[in-house]
Hints:
The complex is a heterodimer of chains A (143) and B (433).
Chain A: E1 3-11, H1 16-26, E2 31-38, E3 42-49, H2 52-61, E4 66-77, H3 82-92, E5 97-102, E6 110-117, H4 120-129, E7 133-134, H5 137-142
Antiparallel strand pairs in A: 1-3, 1-4, 2-3, 4-6, 4-7, 5-6
Chain B: H1 7-10, H2 14-35, H3 37-45, H4 67-72, E1 86-91, E2 101-105, H5 106-122, E3 130-133, H6 142-153, E4 156-158, H7 165-174, E5 179-182, H8 184-196, E6 208-212, H9 218-228, E7 231-238, E8 243-249, E9 256-258, E10 263-268, E11 282-288, E12 299-305, E13 307-308, E14 320-321, E15 326-327, E16 332-334, E17 337-339, H10 341-350, E18 357-364, E19 367-375, H11 385-403, E20 408-412, E21 419-420, E22 423-424, E23 427-429
Parallel strand pairs in B: 3-4, 3-5, 5-6, 6-7, 18-23, 19-20
Antiparallel strand pairs in B: 1-2, 7-8, 8-9, 9-14, 10-11, 11-12, 12-15, 13-14, 16-17, 18-19, 21-22
Helix pairs in contact in B: 2-3, 5-6, 8-9, 10-11
Amino acid sequence: MSVKQISVFLENKPGTLNAMTNVLTKHNVDLRALSLAETTDFGIARFIVGNTLETVTILKEEGYISSLTPVIAAEIADKPGALNEVLQILTDNQINVEYMYASLGSKNGTAYMIFRVQDYKKAAAALESAHVRVLSQEDLAEI
Amino acid sequence: MERYYQPEIECASREAMIEIQNEKLVKQVKHVWDNVPYCRKKMEDAGVTPDDIKSIDDLHKLPFLSKADLRDAYPYGLLGTPLKDCVRIQSTSGTTGKRVVAFYTQHDVDLWEECCARAIVAAGGTNEDVCQVSYGYGLFTGGPGLNGGSHKVGCLTIPTSSGNTERQIMFIMDLSATILCCTPSYAAYLGESMKEMGLGPDDIPLKAGIFGAEAWSEEMRQDIQNTLGIKAYDIYGLTELSGPGVAFECSAQNGMHINEDHFIAEIIDPETGEVLPDGTQGELVFTSLDKEAFPLLRYRTRDVCTLTREKCSCGRTHVKMAKPKGRTDDMLIIRGVNVFPSQIETVLLNKGYPANYQIIVDRVNNSDTLDVLVEMTQEMFTDNLGEIAARQKDLVEGLKSMLGIKAKVSLVAPKSIARSEGKAVRVIDKRKI
């Protein structure tokens, strides 16, 4: 089980991220999770939204270059040690985390972590068999 | 079996060709002296009269004509015949300054189309061929020139003009087009589109392509030949002289034969104006020998290339010009090294990037810097920073081996490079020297 992350190419200079969030705001897109990766001249904004395909279409129309990447969204308890437990499961299964970030909102003491791994099916199976809740694309709309 | 449109001219002995050129040059100089006051004044200033020009050996005595002259004389100053004898104009895009407007009498149109017909026959064309002309039709010389040449050869001509890829492909397939004329970048694009539709080189009826009007590399030729299953031939020309067909490639595919019975080519040192021997790189200069309405003598093209008179396997005797290496007016000297934007473009295209780039030259701490901005494309983009960085590094290395100096490559947002009249501004030189 995986969810689709949108990755957008942005130049690394003042105002580019803001210009993109302006577009998202205009179309009332709600960001569930967001992270930025950058080099000296460009960066990639990675984020999760409820209505992925619609958002990609909007970005394309506005002239942005983006791609979709399958990532794992795992529900963890919002308390010390919870992330450590989940990472332990991945370690035990020899799964390398390319990058990860946390979701923006949480409810009732739960948080969501986004993991990018090479074999997301294997990672999802490992987490689920250890009773960690892995979110589907449909679940995203709920959180 | 090599075929020629006009074998008696294309394969004439050097002696016979010199005789044709001598006779035409003397006549042409007189025509210009009598009918183009602007050029007469230039000749007077240089102390030359038609009496001084007795053969092509005297050509070097004539003053040069430059792009600046064309600008000064715009629009009618270089006209060699009354307007009532002119039947056509063609014009350049004018991205590097004022538009060039060239005039043609019916005779001028005929000789231009004849040059294009030679190119089509050299590419294997006969009256049994179906020739699709996908160059733009209009002020641009590409469409009208090849269209006329195709008629002269007797090909069934499909005047699709440029654009509308789906329709281009439909005509190629439905009417079994055998020859394609367009810019090399459009040929590559058509090839990719057909590949995506599942059409392989064996499914495509095309056998030859005549591609020009922009710089392209040998690697690009191989790519186009492989995807379309054709032989791809280069063609050269400029509006000032007539249009495409001033020079064209033959079966040897290693340089373009100049139509010497219509145009005399010289290579000069762009700094001193001195004529250089064959085989030496320099600026290409043309003298039109029998153009009536727009008779240019010693016109400096600003294209940098070499000429060769080595015997050609195709049997043609006309001098061959190498692919222009760049232009004198856009040559940059960076850290003492000559850099042509076209070299940078070649590297980008060879590595699969689109030609959306900008070169920024600056001077930091007394040392020149070269930054190449490349627009990110959907095809290049991936979520993996490392992968993009690796491609960037590969591009830096490719540029280093082509230019001999190091360039910085920056990836920028799509459509962020400033465009003027639809064409990107290629070079920004911020150095204050």
